[in-house]
């Protein structure tokens, strides 16, 4: 194993910036040799919740110093600099430079390995910022927005101690996370990887993951720019923690069986693949030498309820409805169903020409689409019986995630699982679909009635 240590100083940083092969000069302390012994240093780190982290001035100072140092190194091929990680996640141009193929533009979203890929990404970035911070025990904090939905204060003050606050980022649109879902944590969600049916990785990616991106908005609200905002790391550490918490919660929850082909995947985070890890290594944070202060799954507060069905603003024709505009005010569209679709109780809802307005592009909100919400508020525990899915600036910024249609995206939601649950809960099969769009979040400076999104056409098709 070839391990090197690297001590950050301004002189060596300058030397690195000029180095033509910076990867070779930098190795995260605990990683090396084909990723075979990821926790080789034997050192163990604990990622703390942001409130506890923020109460320790030494940790906050180290985080600030690390971000500032990494931002100071502009060369994109230098892994000691911020841009390397920004481009590793996503290349806004869509085309990584040929010499960085396989390292840049690698993030996994809306597909299998969303969680393992990001776990490795966090891990190697954390090694980089630990060095940059000058604090050898530094570990990234996580933000548990289920406990405190307000953007943590260390990220929101433009200045700190009379100087610029490196954790502050001006391109954000909202500060409070709302309507985060609990479906991913239900005991009935026992399958892990992205795939058919309801799986933990899929549900968690959609909500809370996408919704937190959406509701922070600005840079975080688009896949291509999310890593610009330092809050990205605390959000993703929480997503990463929820994976650990899901495994720790036990019950029927299971990672794929050992023989499953799912395990035959690995990811590299640099060119010579000395920073690589396979899915097996990534499946347990102990292999990576860290854990989390708290491994409990979020629990909905007692008495929490779903929204009551919003007022009906439009009635469609059989199996369809025409253009509607969306604001922060929740709305319901009533769509009559033809006999066979109504009887089957299983269909898809297709939103065509779904797009954000100029104001909507700033983000700060997310929409949940509900089917047949009762007029009076049902308990939040019944969420999965009415919730069809969500969308916002983050998912709409991934063209491959939704299809394209004339004026925007084509987004499909299956109503099968929700309708099945409605029936089992004693609700009658509907003769018309009451489709509700409920906006969550608090986009700053956005009037309640300002147009944020539009849909050209809604169609109901047999599943
Ligand atoms: Cu993300």
Describe the structure.
It is a single chain. With 463 residues, this protein is an alpha+beta fold. The protein has 14 helices and 18 strands. It has helices at residues 10-18, 22-25, 50-54, 57-72, 82-89, 114-133, 153-156, 200-216, 231-249, 279-282, 339-344, 383-386, 393-396, 416-424, and strands at 45-47, 159-160, 163-164, 266-268, 276-278, 290-292, 312-315, 320-321, 324-326, 331-336, 347-356, 366-371, 387-392, 403-405, 408-414, 432-440, 453-455, 457-462. The strands form five sheets. Strands 8, 9, 11, 14, 15, 17 and 18 form a seven-stranded antiparallel β-sheet that branches. Helix 4 crosses helix 6 (114-133). The longest helix is centred in the first third of the chain and has 20 residues, at 114-133. The chain is globular and about 65 Å long. Copper (II) ion binds at residues 209, 213, 226, 236.
Key structural traits:
single chain, 463 residues, alpha+beta, 7-stranded antiparallel β-sheet, 5-stranded mixed β-sheet, 14 helices, 28% helix, 17% strand, globular, disordered N terminus, binds copper (II) ion
- The computed structural class is alpha+beta
Helix content: 25-40%
Strand tally, please?
Answer: 18
What is the C-alpha radius of gyration, as a whole number of Å?
Answer: 23 Å
Spans of at least 5 consecutive residues whose pLDDT stays below 50 are: 1-37
**Could you tell me the strand content as a percent range?**
15-25%
Taken from the alpha-carbon principal axes, the silhouette is globular
> What's the main sheet like?
7 strands, antiparallel
Distance between the termini: 53 Å
Ligand kinds: copper (II) ion
How many H/I helices?
14
Mean pLDDT: 89
